[in-house]
Amino acid sequence: MSLDHPKTPNDLSAFWMPFTANRQFKQAPRMLVASQDMHYTSHDGRQILDGTAGLWCCNAGHCRPKIVEAIQKSAAELDYAPAFQMGHPMAFELASRLVDMSPEGFDHVFFTNSGSESVDTALKIALAYHRARGEGSRTRLIGREKGYHGVGFGGISVGGLVNNRRVFGTLLNGTDHLSHTYLPDQNRWAKGQPEHGETLADELERMVALHGADTIAAVIVEPVAGSAGVILPPKGYLEKLRAITKKHGILLIFDEVITGFGRLGAPFAADYFGVMPDMMTTAKGLTSGTVPMGAVFVTGAVHDTFMTGPEHMIELFHGYTYSGSPIACAAGIATQELYREEGLFQRCADIAPYWEEALHSLKGARHVIDIRNLGLIGAIELEPIAGEPTKRAFTAFLKAYEKGILIRTTGDIIAMSPPLIIEKEHIDQLIGTIKDVLDTLD
User: How far apart are CA 126 and CA 14, in angstroms?
Assistant: First the structure.
């Protein structure tokens, strides 16, 4: 095969694609060859409206000049610098900017390369934190059913998506799971946070009674569950979960890989809901998806617990070759500047009501059994085909792509999370096209 880069590769067999029906895809490939602002360009020259911000990550849109130029400049000046016992200025600059925009109390960030790495990092910090405090018996980690926390062994152990767990055998010991907050019979067609389900947080008290508070290190939840199909926290639920964890000395981790950096119209879900966890895991929108990067936000209380002993000793034996890499930091700094200059978080908050009404206009459309939304996130749940789960939504995905829009499906749910630069006419196109697609589905 030539070293040139053709728009359509000659051989698709070498690449084992992630979370993809490989055999189906390679029979009729869907190739993206360029992008700009709200659109991708397909290999056959069509403009594809991005209804998913890539994979929940391109919050500032695609190929924004400010970010592109920052990446180019860094690659030409400092391509790589080690993060172990060495540093470079951009890592410290980005960390300071992130701390400045985070809720009060978050004083430090630990850089990773993805949401999966951020989750595993946060779980390790939680375990090490309790050991450093002399409470090494706190080893249990609690997640939630239907939770998605990446694909590391820690993340799938506390995660609750069955297909992500079932074929990998024994996972981490000492994990448990709260019930999910998906209550369709009580909360169907809710706009924003649903009314029912706050008391589900009380399950944590049951786990404390079962296992003993002195065995539980941390609880990790997505403030808004994305990959499970946009499952929203009932009113009062996160507040109650925070109160229970604080009461028993358990760390609370918010997985903000999706909700972080403006997705709800605020910097973080912690800001939006007014609930302060002990750690936040982030990635995706940190660099608007341009260069892989993640960051774990930790409070000063958590961080300072490690800052004991001789000053020449390493405080935390953890990190990655690419933690805070120069090119990723350059992308992160430019992305945060772009968010601020264009007021994209507020822009999300301003357009969210239009998004909500457009989504809910599909109530009564063919096969639609529920609609959920918050910020610039939306889910359209379809009635499954009897005996063929996921097929109806996947068919909708294929037909939508043919009609020039990119959506995402999880189970029989159409999930959307467009870039924060979306305009009303884009929303109209997305929802109108989905309506047309639904009308054609069996």
Answer: 39
Rounded-to-integer distance, Cα 250 and Cα 126, Å: 9
Give CA–CA dist 61/268, Å, rounded.
18
Tokens of 409: 């499906």
Per-residue pLDDT tens listing for the chain (442 residues): 344 555 555 689 999 999 999 999 999 999 999 999 999 999 999 999 999 999 999 999 999 999 999 999 999 999 999 999 999 999 999 999 999 999 999 999 999 999 999 999 999 999 999 999 999 999 999 999 999 999 999 999 999 999 999 999 889 999 999 999 999 999 999 999 999 999 999 999 999 999 999 999 999 999 999 999 999 999 999 999 999 999 999 999 999 999 999 999 999 999 999 999 999 999 999 999 999 999 999 999 999 999 999 999 999 999 999 999 999 999 999 999 999 999 999 999 999 999 999 999 999 999 999 999 999 999 999 999 999 999 999 999 999 999 999 999 999 999 999 999 999 999 999 999 999 999 999 8
Residues 183 and 115 in one domain: yes
In a domain, 38, yes or no: yes
**Residue 12 included in any domain:** no
Q: Are residues 393 and 323 in the same domain?
A: no
Is residue 162 domain-shared with residue 176, that is, in the same domain?
yes
Q: Supply the range of the domain harboring residue 389.
A: 22-60+343-440
- Asked if residue 72 and residue 49 are part of one domain, the reply reads no
DSSP string, 118-151: HHHHHHHHHHHHHHHTT-TT--EEEEETT----S
Tally of structural domains, the chain:
2
Report yes or no on 273 lying in a domain.
yes
325, part of any domain: yes
Residues 264 and 395 in one domain: no
Q: Residue for token digits 């939630």?
A: 144
Nearest 5°: the CA angle 72, 286, 319 is 90
For residue 408, the tally of other CB atoms under 10 A from its CB is 21
Do residue 309 and residue 221 come from a single domain? yes
Say yes or no: 280 and 313 in one domain.
Answer: yes
Vertex 391 angle, CA 145 and 420, to 5°: 65
Q: What is the C-alpha to C-alpha distance for residues 208 and 212, in angstroms, rounded to an integer? A: 5
